[in-house]
Amino acid sequence: YTEGEKENVFVENGKLRITALKKDKDKNKYTSARLSSQGKKEFKYGLIEISAKLPPGKGTWPALWMLGSNRREAGWPQCGEIDIMEHVGYQADSIYGTIHSTAYNHMKGTQLGKAIFIADPYTKFHKYSVNWTPEFIDFMVDGVVYNHIVNEKISVEKWPFDQPFYFILNLAVGGAWGGKYGVDDSVFPATMEVDYVRVYEQRIKKD
Would you call 193 a catalytic residue per the annotation? Predict the structure, then answer.
């Protein structure tokens, strides 16, 4: 990931564009961007919606996700992770929504994640959402819930999701998951476009 290089991240026609390039830099073969709201905007609960159009191609790994604001003190996965949307280019038909915690994480193979079929993530903008409450987290695509995770109220090791979280928007290339079947260099430049990120505050109805 580069530091603010305009060829990797810029706004064009009102859309944020995160672009991965086939380019040698600092002993790496690719460059891309990773944006974080840490220390700028952090949120606890709410309906979170991100409108995005994803890049095609084997080896791409776009993600819209969140980490607990105590990550520096507690470390990962103790801080918690909410993956609003992950997509790997070799699975052109699937979007994933997942949580990670001390008890539930991919290092143990216990992460709580599900996938949903999506026909056209590369040609249309879709709304990737989570409804995050003290009782549950729902993962949605275009308003359709495909993963419902309930707070078991047992321990912080299972549910560290009662604190502020911050956003991360990034486009990875390769990696343990995205690069599982290699990288197709013909797909670059590869761009994830983001139309908006919206957070709706929860309001408690009074009788």
Answer: no
Told to judge if 12 belongs to the known catalytic residues of this protein, a careful annotator would answer: no
Catalytic residue among 5, 42, 86, 135: 86
Contact between residue 162 and residue 76 where contact means Cβ atoms under 8 Å apart: no
Q: Could you tell me the pTM of the whole model?
A: 0.95
Residue corresponding to tokens 């105590």: 70
Asked if 66 contacts 81 with a C-beta cutoff of 8 angstroms, the reply is yes
10-residue mean pLDDT profile of the chain (207 residues): values are 93 97 95 97 97 98 98 97 98 96 96 96 98 97 98 96 98 96 97 98 63
**Neighbouring-strand partners of residue 73:** none
CA distances to 48, 83, 133, 135, 145 from 201, in Å: 9, 19, 10, 15, 19
What is 25-46 written as a DSSP string?
ETTEEEE--EEE-TTT-EE-SE
For 115, other C-beta atoms within 10 Å of its C-beta total 17
Of the listed 3, 7, 73, 81, which one is catalytic?
A: 81
